[in-house]
Specification:
- Keywords: Hydrolase.
- Pfam families: Esterase.
- Helices cover 35% and strands 21% of the residues.
- It has nine helices and eight strands.
- An eight-stranded mixed sheet has the order 1-2-4-3-5-6-7-8, with helices on both faces.
- Strand 7, helix 8 and strand 8 form a beta-alpha-beta unit.
- Helix 1 crosses helix 9 and helix 2 packs parallel to helix 5.
């Protein structure tokens, strides 16, 4: 039986000049024509797992319901047979620091060589290598580019926002692993909030988490960490253009939260208000 291919999508593999590693892009063509400024773009991390779902939602809601603008969805992943084959690679790209030995012992489920602390390189790959490749095949609007990450991807989104807040116009952090390396990501929060009023292009930020992500006694504090961070951001008085939204998706687990979150995330990223 012949393998199926995703309709109206381009697949492009490349080896990064930054870290010498291979990546796979899946680029979904919108069903409608671009505006004069080009299509907005949503970059989906862990694209091996989430690309198809995001692309379907974005294209059908724009074409059939005219609920959101036509947008390009880009899945950023790896040349692996399936999502499980990409698990080891994501630890390198999505983490900002090296974990301790006890945490590393929890990652035996991932195949292949496990490395960490490659988030800075991965952000450079997204902005310097992935972005030009997408712009080379479809007309896109560089002022309207969002990035989505879940779990470690949500951690990466927060870490990168704090370091380079103008790299993307919208930052979508779902179930962020704030607990990583003793919550080291939060060391960048104060610098971001101090710099926010002077930003020429203030970003938008969405933080979400599933209501069932924190079993009693869980040291990761998935829900508490997300809610506490959201409370601080909600209290910020940012410049014009700054927008923040958060949501606890009641009844949803760490894995299951992605699907009910997709439409609110797309609305936040693609609608102007």
């Amino acid at each position: 039986m012949k393998a199926a291919s995703y309709p109206l999508a381009r697949q492009q593999d490349f080896t990064s000049r930054v870290n010498g590693r291979a990546y796979r892009l899946r680029i979904a063509t919108p069903f409608g024509p671009p505006p004069a400024s080009g299509y907005p773009v949503v970059y989906v991390l862990d694209g091996d797992g989430y690309f198809g779902t995001f692309a379907d939602a974005a294209r059908l809601r724009a074409a059939a319901g005219m609920e959101i603008p036509h947008a390009v969805v880009v899945g950023v992943g790896y040349p692996a047979e399936d999502f499980t084959g990409a698990l080891g690679r994501r630890f390198l790209d999505l983490t900002p620091t090296e974990p301790d030995a006890a945490e590393k012992a929890n990652h035996s489920f991932a195949s292949g060589e496990l490395r960490y602390a490659g988030a800075d390189d991965f952000l450079e790959i997204l902005t310097g290598e992935v972005r030009p490749r997408v712009a080379g095949v479809l007309p896109v609007d560089p002022a309207r580019e969002a990035v989505f990450g879940h779990s470690l991807g949500g951690l990466f989104v927060l870490y990168s926002l704090f370091r380079r807040p103008e790299a993307f116009s919208a930052w979508l952090s779902l179930s962020p692993s704030i607990w990583w390396d003793n919550r080291t990501v939060l060391k960048g929060e104060a610098g971001f909030t101090a710099a926010l009023p002077a930003l020429a292009r203030p970003p938008k930020l969405f933080v979400g988490v599933g209501g069932l992500e924190q079993p009693e006694g869980s040291p990761a504090r998935m829900v508490d960490n997300a809610v506490e961070l959201s409370a601080r951001f909600s209290a910020l008085s940012g410049p014009p253009g700054w927008r923040f939204a958060s949501r606890v998706f009641d009844g949803e687990t760490h894995t299951g939260v992605v699907w009910p979150a997709i439409n609110p995330l797309l609305d936040f990223a693609l609608k102007d208000a």
